[in-house]
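For reproducibility, we list the full input for the nicotinamide-adenine-dinucleotide complex.
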Amino acid sequence: MNWISSLEDKIKEKTAVVGIVGLGYVGLPLAVSFSKIFKVIGYNNHKEKVKMLQSGRSYIEDVKDEDINLETFRPTDDYYELEKCDFIIIAVPTPLRQDKSPDLSYIENAAETVGKILKKGHFVILKSTTYPGTTEDFMAPILEETSQLKVAEDFGLAYSPERVDPGNKEYNIENTANVVGGLTPEFTRICRMLFEDVTGTIIEVKDCKTAEAVKMIENIFRNVNIALVNELSLIFEKMDIDVWESIEAAKTKPYGFMPFYPGPGVGGHCIPLDPYYLSYRAKHFGIIPRFIETAGEINDFMPIHTVNLAKKGLQKMDKRLRGSRILLLGIAYKSNISDTRESPAKNIIEELKEAGASIKVYDPHSECIHTRYGSFKSEENFINNLEWADCAIIITDHDEFLENSAIINLIKKRELIVVDTRNALKLSKGDFDNYIKL
Ligand SMILES: NC(=O)c1ccc[n+]([C@@H]2O[C@H](COP(=O)([O-])OP(=O)(O)OC[C@H]3O[C@@H](n4cnc5c(N)ncnc54)[C@H](O)[C@@H]3O)[C@@H](O)[C@H]2O)c1
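The corresponding predicted structure, in tokenized form, follows.
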């Protein structure tokens, strides 16, 4: 087919134009990496974000302003500009609905948008995380219907899962292996060629649904293992065993073990959500995925357990949650980033408010978190607010909190109750009545 060899030539000659739909945690770093080699048109339907990028400013922590090269990267909120592209990569959100079923409306909207400008010879790649079958059975029909073109005959289609880990200083798009699976073996090959100079090693798999399954395996593996270690932490707490010390020792085994750590609950746009995508799909095939759902339930219990620990700590000091002043240290879902999406801090704040506590939050990276009790803005001054609090709960292991001497001194002087859900202070369990470690 002519258009396929033309795409190959454009990749080889580096004249291919790459379109990216959705410039968020995934799409923006991808646009930056592609723009080192190809011309990139980045389409986002959020005008303010596009304006920022057009003036050379980034809103994603991992992308520095100087990484944005407007000579090769053109951010736009006009989807017609995607017409000039040879490849169009879709990286839009895949959240859950209230009932934990997949919300594919963003993929649907993006596919309709792309369908409007789709021409013979275009190649579409989905990057959003989703259940196996979405690219071929859900997205392709929308593209076909909107464009009146036929997949494989007129345009190419592939899926490539995204592995970016926000805040990770060691691994990024360019040094992480990238999996690709096309609708046909030829499309897998073209997708490989496109990503070859941009990402780490390319791993080809048989088709789109196998590539989609890879992402499901990775995130479910993480979710289930975190749930396992959360459950162990609940058991060991009753047995007066320090789960952290046990994990440190267990991880010295050089094979057959990989450490995971307990915490106040899982957060972010991936781990708490993606497993339910597969769970939902499995039910269509008559399989009730007990393992996946149990992991979700255990992880969802951890914010409540964290509140119970605070209650226990306060009781030891003859205090009650009602009327107590609680400072949350960290509202981001993981260390040294600002992302608060699905952060366990939200549920913890809501539970504490329901119990009648006064809440303040402090986070050196995040400005604000939204809850059903309104928005909580990070305090400016950490130390003053430590002095205000009856109890501080360490939710996020940001560097600023690790072995923090101001917090440790207040514990030693018995002036503050601290619940440490991340082993951030590295004090031994049981050393101080007012130090409660998960
Ligand atoms: N954040 C991560 O660490 C991560 C890692 C791997 C995979 N993923 C997956 O990648 C996908 C994207 O996640 P994200 O974290 O980048 O989301 P995000 O919310 O940070 O970014 C998505 C962007 O797409 C834009 N958008 C939404 N609908 C659009 C449309 N129809 N047209 C144009 N722009 C549109 C939004 O304005 C937003 O800027 C999800 O499926 C997610 O599960 C995320």
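DSSP finds 13 helices and 15 strands in the chain. The domain at 230-437 is CATH 3.40.50.720 (Rossmann fold). Both points were considered when choosing residues for closer inspection.
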